[in-house]
Design goal:
With 160 residues, this protein is α+β, with helices and mostly antiparallel strands. Helices cover 27% and strands 39% of the residues. The protein has helices spanning 3-11, 85-97, 106-120, 153-158; strands at residues 14-23, 26-34, 46-58, 61-73, 124-133, 143-150. The strands form 2 sheets. It has a 4-stranded antiparallel β-sheet with strand order 3-4-5-6, with helices on one face. A hairpin with a 2-residue loop joins strand 1 and strand 2.
Length: 160
């Protein structure tokens, strides 16, 4: 949804302007603004955290990773469905420490992270993971992969 459509759908502002001629050179302008109550606005909740300087042996090298995770909660999430972000961080660290395919590109590794988090945590509607890999002796460039994965609409409704 673009910003303009989002703004219109959230605020639902209706402006009515009437111009009435009242004589030669005269006019009266009437305007009224009608707004939807704030309680009817859609709530969007997000959370993020950073796993800094995580060491991972991958692609034949010791790599230093900085992993930024952000996620959006499902609409109308119950208190019990809010995950402690430390659980997510631990799951990511466990996945990377035991990663099965040494040759996978960072983009593939990152897709595995997002798949794991959506599968394990039903209170999350979408997740974005960005892995930044520091330069090594074999690869002299800093590189990064950013992956966003969203829960399908049908699965999201089941968890509400």
């Amino acid at each position: 949804m673009n910003l303009s459509a989002s703004f219109k759908s959230i605020t639902r502002i209706l402006i009515l302007v009437a111009v009435v001629a009242t004589g030669p050179g005269w006019s009266v302008v009437y305007s009224q603004s009608l707004k939807t109550p704030a309680s009817a606005a859609q709530l969007v909740e997000e959370f993020s955290f950073l796993i800094k300087d995580f060491r991972m042996d991958h692609q034949g090298q010791a790599n230093n990773l900085n992993i930024s995770i952000s996620y959006r909660y499902a609409a109308n999430i119950s208190k019990a469905d809010y995950p402690d972000f430390r659980w997510l961080a631990k799951d990511i660290e466990t996945l990377l420490s035991n990663y099965p395919n040494e040759d996978d590109y960072w983009e593939i590794v990152n897709k595995q992270i997002t798949a794991l988090l959506l599968k394990k945590y039903p209170g999350i509607a979408s997740v974005t993971s960005e892995i930044k890999v520091d330069p090594t002796s074999a690869v002299l460039y800093t590189r990064s992969s950013r992956v966003t994965r969203e829960r399908s609409a049908s699965k999201a409704r089941k968890h509400q």
